[in-house]
Structure formats: structure tokens, C-alpha cells
Amino acid sequence: MTPGKAYLSPESIRRLAARSDLMGVWLLVHCWGVIFGSVAVFALWPNILTFLLAVVLIGSRQLGLAILMHEAAHNALFKTRALNEFAGEWLCGRPILAELASYRHYHLTHHRFTQSDKDPDLTLSEKFPTSRASLQRKFIRDLTGQTGIKQLSAQIMMSFRLAGDDDAIEAATQDAAQAFKARDLWKSLPVFFGVGLMMSLLGNWWYGLAFWLLPYLTWFQLVLRIRNIAEHGATEKSDDPLQNVRTTLAGPVARALVAPYWVNYHLEHHMVMHVPCWRLPALHRALTATGLKNKMKISPTYGHALSEAGW
């Protein structure tokens, strides 16, 4: 479960895995600050460019909330367990219609059986490489909201279907297509729409629709797909932790729009999964210093990762 032990000393891993309540607070403040700051920029300078910028930045921070929920699933967002559970559930997961407990259960299974027949994420990665035309169709469906509407409709139907059925809930939790989502949607919808309502109350009545629902249905779906492709798409179906997962190097623009909160260091995350996201660059340096760099599956850009997947 911790492949990095083969290359790093217990002392190094322990130092890198140290959690921080202060950093947890900062990550949440930054994420929500970008979301509401993007709306404020449009309110101050309303035009098509600031509108599109807000939609893109907010969609990327909705992915950011998913990443911070992922941190909480590994008990790495906060040092204090109670803060980790509360923030992961109500400040990260529920606002994007996701649920910490079901995600944690599914995701730890993915770590245990990465790129094997028992990996619940295998359905997301085994279809790659594919054709450029197929990827184009997927990206168009994402950006036009078709994917988001389909997923949201399926989630609502799933919530009704699973109500009170513990066996069905357990089965759905193992489904990679459903694992991100809240199975008890009635708890999440008020939080999701509450964020939109807050935006509308602070601005105009349509702000919630334009700056919370629209990014969720469009840009968030696109960058979520790109993240999934970059992490395991067109990698080895094997138990080699240096080749069955990919790290993608990201500059400032990619980090802002596609890969927030160091999510691009995915190989490092699989090597020592309880290292907080903000320490992953240091873990990357520690691993490459051992001479592993040429053995690790690393893409220099997200464009290169997508090209390996068929783009």
C-alpha cells in the first residue's frame, strides 16, 4: 500500500507526511476565495471576457474542491481529525454534490488494486488510448453541458433508486462512475444550491446559475475528464507503481485552469498516498534524487499526456 517505502527512509516519509491545520485552512480559503473573487471581478468589470474567465476559474476550483475532498479522504487535509471530516464533507464534497464517506471507500480500493482487474477506476482508464475523434466528441459534450446534465440526471435517479436500499448503495459505491457523487442527494442539493443562492444575493439573481451551475455542468466536467485521463489513461495495466500511473508537469496556467492543488503529482501520491498535496513537489524531488526519474512515467505537459491517450 506504500510503494515509496522501497525508495525512501521511514524518517523521510514521516517528515513529508506531516499534516497541518493551518495549511488546511489556507487551502480552503484559497479555493473559495478564487470562486467568489472570480464573481467579484465580473461584478466590477462586467464583460464577456471576465464572464468566461469566471466560469473557467470557478470550474477549475470546483475540481479543486474535489481534490481537497480527496485529501480529506486520505486524512491529509487537516491534522485534526474532526476538522478533516467536517471540511471534507461539508466544505468540499457536498458543495459539488459529492460525499466523503462513499468516495473514501471507493478510492482506497483504487489504491489497493491500481490498474488491476479489481481497480474500480479501471473502467475510466482502460479505454485509452483512443482516437482523436473520440476525444473531441467527449470534450465537446463536456463543454456544451451534455455530460454534466446527463451525470446530474443520473445522480438524481440514483438517489431515488438507492433510498433505503443498503445493498444497492454498497454496489453503487463500487461504481467508478458514481463514486464521486452523494448517494443521499437530499443532503447535498441544499448545499449546492445554497452556494448559488449566496452568489445571487451578493450580486444579481442570475449569478448562481451563471457562476455555480454553469461551471459545474461545463468546465468542471472537462477538467475532471482531463485529470482522469492524465492520471491513468494509457498507462501500464500492471503492478509497477512507476508505470501504472502518470505524473504530469504543470506550469502556472495549467495549475490555474486544469491541475489545482498539485493534483498533477499523481505518481508521487500513489507512492505515498498519505502525503498532503502541498508536500507532493517535495516528494517528487525526493524520489527523483534516488535516481528514479528515468523510470517514472512523467509527461512534460498535459498536452503530451493527452497525446499518449490519443489526442
Automatic annotation (TrEMBL):
<feature type="transmembrane region" description="Helical">
    <location>
        <begin position="191"/>
        <end position="214"/>
    </location>
</feature>
<feature type="domain" description="Fatty acid desaturase">
    <location>
        <begin position="48"/>
        <end position="297"/>
    </location>
</feature>
<feature type="transmembrane region" description="Helical">
    <location>
        <begin position="21"/>
        <end position="45"/>
    </location>
</feature>
<keyword id="KW-0472">Membrane</keyword>
<dbReference type="GO" id="GO:0008610">
    <property type="term" value="P:lipid biosynthetic process"/>
</dbReference>
<feature type="transmembrane region" description="Helical">
    <location>
        <begin position="51"/>
        <end position="69"/>
    </location>
</feature>
<dbReference type="Pfam" id="PF00487">
    <property type="entry name" value="FA_desaturase"/>
</dbReference>
<keyword id="KW-1133">Transmembrane helix</keyword>
<dbReference type="GO" id="GO:0016717">
    <property type="term" value="F:oxidoreductase activity, acting on paired donors, with oxidation of a pair of donors resulting in the reduction of molecular oxygen to two molecules of water"/>
</dbReference>
<keyword id="KW-0812">Transmembrane</keyword>
<protein>
    <submittedName>
        <fullName>Fatty acid desaturase family protein</fullName>
    </submittedName>
</protein>
<dbReference type="InterPro" id="IPR005804">
    <property type="entry name" value="FA_desaturase_dom"/>
</dbReference>
<dbReference type="GO" id="GO:0016020">
    <property type="term" value="C:membrane"/>
</dbReference>
<dbReference type="InterPro" id="IPR012171">
    <property type="entry name" value="Fatty_acid_desaturase"/>
</dbReference>
